[in-house]
Amino acid sequence: MAEKASEQLVDVLIDWQVKHVYGLPGDSIDTTVDALRKKQDQIGFIQVRHEEVAALAAAAEAKLTDKLGVCLSIGGPGAIHMLNGLYDAKMDHVPVLALLGQVDTQFLNENYFQEVNTPQLFSDVAVYDKLITASDNLAEVVDEAIRTAYQKHGVAVLTIPDNLPEQKVTGSYTSSAATFQLTSPQIDSDRLKTAAKLIREAKKPLALVGLGAKHAGSQVASFLERNHIPFISTLPAKGLVGDSHPNSLGNVGKLGTKPAYEAMQNTDLLLMLGTNYPYTAYLPKPGSAKSIQVNTNPSAIGKRYPADVGLVADLKEVLFRLDPTETTVLHPDDSFLKACQENVANWNRWMKDKRRLDTTPVAPEALFNDINETAAKDAIYSIDVGTATSWSARFLDVKPTQKFVLSSYLGTMGCALPAAIAAKLNYPNRQVISINGDGAFAMVMQDFITAVKYKLPLINIVLNNSKLAFIEYEQQAAGQLNYQIDLQDMDYAKFADAAGGVGITAKTPEEFERALNRAYRVTKMPVLINAYVRDDAPLPGKIVGEEAKGYMKFGSQYLKEEKKIPELPPLKDIMRQFF
For the Thiamine pyrophosphate enzyme TPP-binding domain, which residue ranges apply (predicted)? Predict the structure, then answer.
């Protein structure tokens, strides 16, 4: 019996084990939505309140599961809303399929109502970007789009005039899902030998561990332990080896630690393991250290730092080939590791004092410490952009048994709540904690009601300081006076209650502790903790020259215009960051 093309489209999604499609129904996509309705026992349609949230949730699902994320919207305005979330997927290199509606074919190219040239609009974000022109091969094109998204680790976009999926197709189609397989490049044996030689000869080797270690965390940990190599995690890779690992120096960069910065400046061999870390100012000066780089993407080799050895290969396979018996010690000297560990111990003593701050409003350092001490061992952290990122980078001790997701390269505000929704849908038995600034949360807060609709007991913490705090510090570091960074406060807890969830306000450390304990016990609806936090400055792990000049310029301008000295962090904190 003949099927509708839309039904074959949905069958292809099911073959590829797609569990959720995020989006909003509407006239130019409703034929596809109707096909999803018919197969709702096999694939879930998650109705959101804004299409940007659909795309951000699909991107987060891909980051968390390594599976294809799928979102859909009407053409025109709905499709345009999706662009931000799809750029997040593009820049974090995860597979996402976007199904976009379009006006019926008889109205194309007539400037019809809501007609937008979406293939042109999405050409930069997509690795596969097609306008569907016939119904007979719709399933085949969807299948090819999914393969391409997986192969190229990116976004596939299909623009579908809504009259085409409605048409009957006589032939059947078998997807390629069952036979599809990604293969890793072969390792160059000579380069591997050269890499081993460089490790043997190094006096101060240092590893920078990225998301390429996602499925090799234990192998990376064992290799670094045996060879006495300290390591720094990129923020997206936080927790893959474990923040509390004895070889860990934390993160590097503006959100990093001083020991990590200093190790970078002193290393003579940098092992870039599965990372394309973009902040070159925090890497060693070219020529001061040799470099071994492992990445499955050949274009990443040597892109950020000159590579002495480039291995285009899977990291787990490289480590196995370097040490097939897991007993080989290429670097027995532990002097550099011990020096780094002593530096970290000094840093941690300072961090320990910060974690114990007892203030009203709540000190962010102490708030994150409460989360650290009480969160489940398999908790999933969804972190928004802004000071939430800063404080989590420094004060969340993420374990290999936990997950940590954020908008790594696009850095888009409003990413945490959509990711938390995706996390709870995919891991219903795991604790999900979303941490947002008040500025970021306000961008997507309408979709808290989506978590209510689907009875998702996630915990959503809003760090409320009534300002765009991270932008405040960015303006100061650039030597600019603060402008338009204050936010009108609102009672987010009352909003959560009005949406049908649980809202709790916390203004003291004791109130936050009680709120968190209460949130852990809620099982059938989302919780929002409106946490009023102190406006602390999340200073960089190391204040570099340009930032220092900027802060000095800001201070002098402030004194000139306001006739007083600006409020600054304690002098001892600033001095630690400088020296």
Answer: 384-530
Q: Where are the beta strands (DSSP E) in 274-397?
A: 290-295, 309-312, 380-383
| Spatial CA neighbour of 102 closest among 70, 79, 122, 120 | 79
Question: Can you tell me whether residue 481 is helix, strand or coil?
Answer: coil
Q: Is the pLDDT of residue 544 over 70?
A: no
Burial profile 428-443: b = 16 or more Cβ within 10 angstroms, e = fewer:
eeebbbbbbbbbbbbb
Stretch 201-228: mean pLDDT, rounded? 96
> Which segments of 132-214 does DSSP mark as H helices, in order?
138-152, 189-201
Q: Enter the DSSP assignment of 211.
A: G
CA distance 68 to 149: 8
If phi over 0 gives left and psi between -120 and 50 gives alpha, with beta otherwise, what is residue 382?
beta
pLDDT tens, position by position, 216-263: 999 999 999 999 999 999 999 999 999 999 999 999 888 888 899 999
pTM score, whole prediction: 0.91
The conformation of residue 486, written as its DSSP 8-state character, comes to B
- Among 231, 308, 243, CA closest to 273: 231
Largest CA distance in the chain: 82
Cα separation of 284 and 62, whole Å? 33
Distance CA 197, CA 578 (A): 36
Cα–Cα distance measured from residue 136 to residue 8, given in angstroms and rounded to the nearest whole number = 10
Angstrom CA distances, 267 to 239, 308, 379, 538, stand at 23, 15, 34, 26
pLDDT, tens digit, for every residue of 317-368?
A: 999 998 776 777 999 999 999 999 999 999 898 888 888 888 999 999 999 9
- Residue whose pair of structure tokens reads 């474990």 in the numeric block: 242
d(CA 98, CA 155): 7
Which of 27, 21, 17 is closest to 54 using CA atoms?
21
Here the tokens at position 386 are 């802004």
User: How crowded is the C-beta side of 485, counted as CA atoms within 13 Å?
Assistant: 18
Phi-psi region of 492 (alpha: psi -120 to 50; beta: other; left: phi over 0): alpha
**pLDDT for 65-82, tens place per residue?**
999 999 999 999 999 999
Query: What are φ and ψ of residue 208, in 5° steps?
Result: -110, 110
In one-letter notation, the amino acid at residue 160 is I
Quick one: pLDDT at residue 382? 98
- The residue assigned the tokens 């997206």 is 236
Mean per-residue pLDDT for 97-117?
88
Residue 252: φ, ψ to 5°: -125, 155
Please compute the mean of the pLDDT values over residues 194-219 and round it to a whole number: 96
For residue 339, list its beta bridge partners.
Answer: none
